[in-house]
């Protein structure tokens, strides 16, 4: 990967951030870092008013600003997208198969020859989201029908757009395809999951390693239970106040709890066992069969109090 230059102000951005940046710099000798505390005048010339700041400077004068997660992998993927054109052309089946896996999330259009309006809308979509996903123009499926498909290679999921004609059809398709099976729950996206009517299986972790290990383990289960259950990850340090709210010990570094936003029922997983796929399925079975009663924080001093009976839905 060859870039035109990348700058990062690293003042007040140390620890794992610095380690991630050192990993990124191995990708390309044109990637450099600046400490704005030591290079204040130069950073002022670059109009860097807050930091850390990550920018890609192109030879033609264009500047791309990175606003994603500050992890090595996400920044490297951003760089790869930024130095490519907004869309790729797959003129052969071999290229179609290659570009299917060019990114974490790939959108591919198979337009019939006269569907220039859809092609224009797809190109506009690619320009809007070019730094987040990859977009490919591919050979037609048929002479009479256009198709837009996506490949979520993180979760190994493929979708075909059902609505490619309406104003919001393609935008909604982007949201559908890019939504991870096991997302990280934050205050920003919390309402998105609590308003669906599905229960939420919270997993709490404190390190990226723990989060990624759980995400990889839980993906098959998230597919299996997707109809009525969200699998989510919550940072136990950043959202420590959530732990006692779902029946887990304050200050815990890890934990698992099932929450039903519809009626407020909460089922914390007890014990110090390592959370595995079998542990999760056994836990869910105990809930649905009624063997495990919902925990209620106001009755904690009196022990766990439940409603009795089984639960047809989680």
Describe this structure in words.
The chain has 314 residues and is α/β, with parallel strands linked by helices. It has three domains: 6-82, Glutaredoxin (3-Layer(aba) Sandwich), CATH 3.40.30; 87-178, Glutaredoxin (3-Layer(aba) Sandwich), CATH 3.40.30; 190-302, Glutaredoxin (3-Layer(aba) Sandwich). 31% of the residues lie in helices and 18% in strands. It has ten helices and twelve strands. It has helices at 16-25, 40-45, 72-82, 93-99, 116-129, 169-178, 190-194, 208-224, 242-245, 277-289, and strands at 6-8, 54-57, 63-66, 87-90, 105-110, 134-138, 147-152, 157-160, 199-205, 229-235, 255-259, 266-268. The strands form three sheets. Strands 4-6-5-7-8 form a five-stranded mixed sheet. The protein has a four-stranded mixed sheet with strand order 10-9-11-12, covered by helices on one side. It has a three-stranded antiparallel sheet with strand order 1-2-3, covered by helices on one side. A hairpin with a 5-residue loop joins strand 2 and strand 3 (63-66). Helix 1 (16-25) runs parallel beside helix 3 (72-82). The protein starts with 5 loop residues before the first strand and ends in a 25-residue tail after the last helix. Residues 4-16 and 300-313 have low confidence and may be disordered.
């Amino acid at each position: 990967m060859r870039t035109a230059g990348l700058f990062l102000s690293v003042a007040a951005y140390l620890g794992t951030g610095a380690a991630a940046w050192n990993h990124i710099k191995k990708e390309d000798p044109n990637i450099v870092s600046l400490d704005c505390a030591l290079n204040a005048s130069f950073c002022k010339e670059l109009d860097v008013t807050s930091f850390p700041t990550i920018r890609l400077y192109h030879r033609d004068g264009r500047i791309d600003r990175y606003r994603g997660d500050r992890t090595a992998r996400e920044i490297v993927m951003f760089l790869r997208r930024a130095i490519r054109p907004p869309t790729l052309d797959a003129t052969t089946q071999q290229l179609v198969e290659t570009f299917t896996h060019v990114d974490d999330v790939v959108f591919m259009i198979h337009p019939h020859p006269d569907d220039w309006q859809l092609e224009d809308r797809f190109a506009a979509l690619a320009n809007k989201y070019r730094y987040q996903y990859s977009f490919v123009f591919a050979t037609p499926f048929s002479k009479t029908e256009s198709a837009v498909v996506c490949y979520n290679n993180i979760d190994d999921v493929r979708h075909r757009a059902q609505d490619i004609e309406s104003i919001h059809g393609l935008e909604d398709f982007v949201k559908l395809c890019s939504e991870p099976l096991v997302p990280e729950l934050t205050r920003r996206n919390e309402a998105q999951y609590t308003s669906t009517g599905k229960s939420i299986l919270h997993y709490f972790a404190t390190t990226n390693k723990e989060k990624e290990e759980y995400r990889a383990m839980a993906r098959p289960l998230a597919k299996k239970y997707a109809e009525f259950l969200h699998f989510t990850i919550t940072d136990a340090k950043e959202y420590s106040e959530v732990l006692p709210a779902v029946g887990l010990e304050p200050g815990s570094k890890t934990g698992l709890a099932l929450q039903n936003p519809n009626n407020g029922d909460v089922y914390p997983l007890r014990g110090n066992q390592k959370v595995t796929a079998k542990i999760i399925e056994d836990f869910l079975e105990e809930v649905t069969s009624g063997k495990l009663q919902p925990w209620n924080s106001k009755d904690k001093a009196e022990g766990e109090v439940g409603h009795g009976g089984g639960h047809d839905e989680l």
